[in-house]
Amino acid sequence: MSIELRGAGILGTGSYTPEKILTNFDFEKFVDTTDEWIVTRTGIRQRHIAEEGMAASDLACNAATRALESAGIGAEKIDLIICATITGDMPFPSTSCILQNRIGAVGAGAFDLQAGCSGWVYALTVATQFIKTGIYNHILVVGVDVLSRLTDFTDRSTCVLFGDGAGAAVLGPVAKGEGVLATCLGADGSGAELLKVEAGGSRLPASEETVKNRRHYIKMEGREVYKFAVKIMVEASIKALGECSLTPEDVDLFIPHQANERIIDAARDRLKIPAEKVFKNVANYGNTSAASIPIALDEAHRSGRIKAGDVVVAVGFGAGLTWASAALKWVVPAK
Ligand code: UT7
Asked: Which residues contact 303 (CB under 8 A, 6 or more apart)?
């Protein structure tokens, strides 16, 4: 069933990454790795790391402010804030509520959404429904993660991969047939063990034992996630495009989750999308989880890589396991 009274599109974008940078050479000093291994296996050269005391809402606030400026919309016009994150300021209240107060979005509802690195596209999907049905007019969709807080800097197989950041978009009504054309969400909880932080929840609350055994850090079966990622990025992209009668040939800009350059290249190859139509910034940021796609989208928008009318496909995968894709016809965002 489809109740679509109007279109929903991105009216403005913003992003923020902390100033502090850790290069691959910095890692060589404290873990058994090399710049050469990291670059050839992942494409990552550096990542931004939040200073001590900095939390998700601090990064989100900067990205959101930039997105509101880009959309030319005051915070008081925002009806809803959805923040995709797995590293909120604290277990509760939500980071969205903290953000709502910080930016002065006095009329907005606010909640967080958790879908790992697919989170921002999940949040975009939720926001789109409210706008297409006319329930809300303006929604702030944020993806933010501070994965450095969950990173075990003694585990070389994961610590070189992640970075901190935030990306945001303001969604609003556009003409039918423009903006977000289709989205596709998926999950396979049988893969929950492949990528997780096992302690700190109701299953294994924090204790001296969990801290001593480093169970509050990210654990990942990298190879398994890799295989899943390539397959699902291809399938999810084709599915979202198919929903609006498009194919990979119609794509003007492909914006994949920035986890590993080899995953991006393998998916691009299978989709037969030319290299110049793929946006990559993984070298500069590493994997910023829920922030990865909105940061890339913001950079693509601000650098003029996306023009009005372009077909853009964003696709993510992550813990859960989850995946999410969106096909958009880009509208001219207000300045
Ligand atoms: O947002 C979703 C989050 N996750 C991902 O997207 C991750 C998906 N997976 C990946 O990106 C890749 O699997 C990794 C980058 C994590 C690993 O690359 P790989 O080509 O799959 O390497 P591997 O895990 O098969 O490891 C190959 C070797 C191993 O040594 P041995 O057993 O062959 O002697 C590792 O111990 O590389 C070793 N290794 C390292 N060596 C130097 C693992 N990490 C490092 C490191 N530096 N940082």
From this structure: none
Nearest atom within ligand 1 for CA of residue 158? 16
Q: What is the pLDDT of residues 60-95, one digit of tens each?
A: 999 999 999 999 999 999 999 999 999 999 999 999
List the CATH code of the domain at 7-177: 3.40.47.10
The CATH architecture annotation of domain 181-329 reads 3-Layer(aba) Sandwich (3.40)
For range 90-118, the mean pLDDT: 98
* Ligand 1, atom 7: closest residue by C-alpha: 222
User: How many angstroms is it from 307 CA to the middle of ligand 1?
Assistant: 37
Contact 157, 220 (CB under 8 A): yes
pTM of the model: 0.96
Ligand 1 centroid distance, CA of 223 (Å): 7
pLDDT for the residue numbered 335: 43
Would 7-177 and 181-329 be classified into the same CATH topology?
A: yes
Among protein residues, the one with the nearest Cα to ligand 1's atom 44 is 157
Q: According to DSSP H, which parts of 193-325 are helical?
A: 208-212, 222-243, 261-271, 282-285, 292-302
Residues with CB under 6 Å of ligand 1 are 33, 37-38, 41-42, 117, 156-157, 160, 195, 220, 222-223, 225-226, 229, 259-260, 287, 318
